[in-house]
Amino acid sequence: MRSMRRAFLAGCATLLALAPLAAAAEDLTPDRQAFFGLYKELVQTNTSLSAGSCTQAAAQIAAHLKTAGYADADITPFSVPDHPREGGLVAVLQGSDKRVKPMLLLGHLDVVEAKRADWARDPFTLIEEGDYYYARGSVDDKAMAAIWADAMVRFKTSGYKPKRTIKLALTCGEETTFAFNGAEWLAKNRPDLIAAEFALNEGGGGRLDDAGHRQLLAVQVGEKAAQNYTFTATNPGGHSSQPTPENAIYELADALEAVRAYEFPVKFTDTTRAFFSASTAAVPAPVGDAIRRLLADPTDKAADALISRDKAMHSTLRTTCVATLLNAGHAENALAQRATANVNCRIFPGETVEETLATLQRLAGPKIVVTANQPVRPTAIPPSLDPKILGPMRAVAAKHFPGLPLLPLMSTGATDGIFLEAIGIPVYGAPGTFLDSDFNGVHGLNERIRKASLYDARDYLYDLVKAYAG
């Protein structure tokens, strides 16, 4: 999910001066205690695909909203019969001005699997230790989901009357490609429920150094499309004592070697061009000079090679494809009758699944069959660097995080935003949630979030939503 975007942030942060130390976690006020209760309940509700239930988590959030005063008509739970545990909800706070299009707050309830035996702590029990909260989903994405739900509760209980209608969509399936995806289902089946001028989602954030100093803020403006392809080599096989040159394993290996050696062409979106242009002043020679040359001429191979020594920069400049799974043979003393590989691609905005498939088939050669795996994701459509969106982010950040730069970044990973962008809703990864330099164990072991980071993000995002809603 967001891990590729975080890797890019790691490179960016080295270019910038440190900001003041983040505030230490305070004793919780009654207001924060209420938020913590919602957050803890959500984190401790197992929503992994194998054993959990997003439907249960969504129902718990709905109960909080109803207690705050939302009517049944304001809350739409959804699921499908063949995936009853993978449901979600949409909630609406009506605005007073029908001429202003709604905004959408998007978050996902599902989490990456977590094996108890591998963790130092129970991954589905929120544990407070030192300056951190530990648990699976403590960051990805239950921090944002809880903040959005809490904001909707606070808006209602405070009597806030926005001009712009505010919608909340909490969905399942973001973390697993083959799972039922709630955001995709809403986009295809209930676009009326989530219709909005723009959406705020995960993917942005901020970065801290090892001492907890804030370094930068980031807003995600665009992302790649994740797509898997299967390479298949077949052969009649036979006894391994009489090998022949026509060997399914070797033919597959040759095809994968061709993929490894191939570099997709360098391209820029408005977002990546803005980022690289801004970085030239901070990056010393020779890399800074190479960035300037590549911006002027994307075919400059020497400049590309120098910049691409950084794997995050390399991925930000182009489509990438890499072999991730292999399977071959049926017996140790027999020639393989079939050899397959999964090739995972992250497709640059504007490029299609079909175009990438054609490139891979050309590289693989006529003996290999290349197919695009289901599900096939939409073509990534980057939103614009809209000052009506970025302006409030900067203005509210100046109040909460004075002196920090706000960088627009394109994610080299993928989020559920791609499904909304396919139906004309531009999606922005909101800044505000600061993570450590090791990215807090997201998708890995012992996931955690700094207490101060969680509560600071809550305050910032609450004010940001109000800035848009009026």
Structural class comes to: alpha/beta
Approximately how much beta-strand content do the residues carry?
Answer: 15-25%
Give the termini separation: 31 Å
Rg measurement, Å = 23 Å
Structure description:
- Helix 3 (about 55-70) runs parallel beside helix 4 (about 140-160), helix 8 packs antiparallel against helix 9 (about 285-295) and helix 13 (about 385-400) crosses helix 15 (about 450-470).
- Strands 1, 2, 3, 6, 7, 8, 9, 16, 17 and 18 form a ten-stranded mixed β-sheet that branches. The protein has a four-stranded antiparallel β-sheet with strand order 12-14-10-15, with helices on one face. Strands 4-5-19 form a three-stranded antiparallel β-sheet.
- The chain has about 475 residues and is α/β, with parallel strands linked by helices.
- It starts with a helix and ends with a helix.
- The protein has helices at about 5-15, 30-45, 55-70, 140-160, 180-190, 190-195, 250-260, 270-280, 285-295, 300-305, 310-315, 355-365, 385-400, 415-420, 450-470; strands at about 75-80, 85-95, 105-110, 125-130, 130-135, 165-170, 200, 205-210, 215-225, 225-235, 240, 320-330, 335, 340-345, 370, 405-410, 425-430, 435, 450.
- A hairpin with a 2-residue loop joins strand 4 (about 125-130) and strand 5.
- Residues about 1-10 and about 15-25 have low confidence and may be disordered.
